[in-house]
């Protein structure tokens, strides 16, 4: 299970508006925001998991997290460590439905529909059988 902990800066800003901007000093471009503190924490976890998942998928090296004590903060901001588990994102992405368009002869389509065949289910079954996959959800499958 891939589990990470990274410090996040929660910055309320100085313009008197509601909410927080959340940045991760070790992960340039990993930025999110929330209108409330609760939403900002939830969005921080989501952003961090998605960002790290993308890095794993691209075979990029994940940097070591900074020590929260050594992070310089804007006025009014604070640091909190956020936990991210990329295995949950990986499973969700692996089981995400992907639409495929295919072509079959009309006579075959008519016969299959007359028998009430579920095309999606049949195609999944046939592909798994062809690839020798015997499990229902094999999100770690790599060929």
TrEMBL record:
Highest taxon listed in the record's lineage: Bacteria
Record InterPro entries: HicB-like, TA_system_antitoxin, TTHA1013/TTHA0281-like
Gene3D superfamilies named among the record's database cross-references: 3.30.160.250
Domain HicB-like antitoxin of toxin-antitoxin system: 7-108
Designated name of the protein: Predicted nuclease of the RNAse H fold, HicB family
Organism, as annotated: Anoxybacillus suryakundensis
High-level lineage: Bacteria, Bacillati, Bacillota, Bacilli, Bacillales
């Amino acid at each position: 299970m891939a589990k990470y902990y990274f410090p996040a800066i929660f910055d309320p800003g100085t313009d008197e508006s509601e909410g927080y901007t959340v940045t991760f000093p070790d992960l340039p471009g990993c930025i999110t925001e929330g209108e409330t503190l609760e939403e900002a924490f939830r969005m921080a976890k989501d952003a961090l998991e998605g960002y790290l998942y993308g890095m794993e998928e691209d075979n990029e090296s994940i940097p070591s997290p900074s020590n929260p004590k050594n992070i310089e903060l804007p006025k009014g901001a604070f640091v909190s460590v956020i936990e991210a588990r990329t295995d949950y994102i990986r499973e969700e992405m692996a089981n995400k439905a992907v639409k495929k368009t295919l072509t079959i002869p009309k006579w075959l389509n008519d016969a299959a529909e007359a028998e009430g065949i579920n095309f999606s289910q049949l195609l999944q079954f046939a592909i798994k059988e062809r690839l020798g996959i015997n499990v229902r959800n094999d999100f770690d499958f790599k060929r």
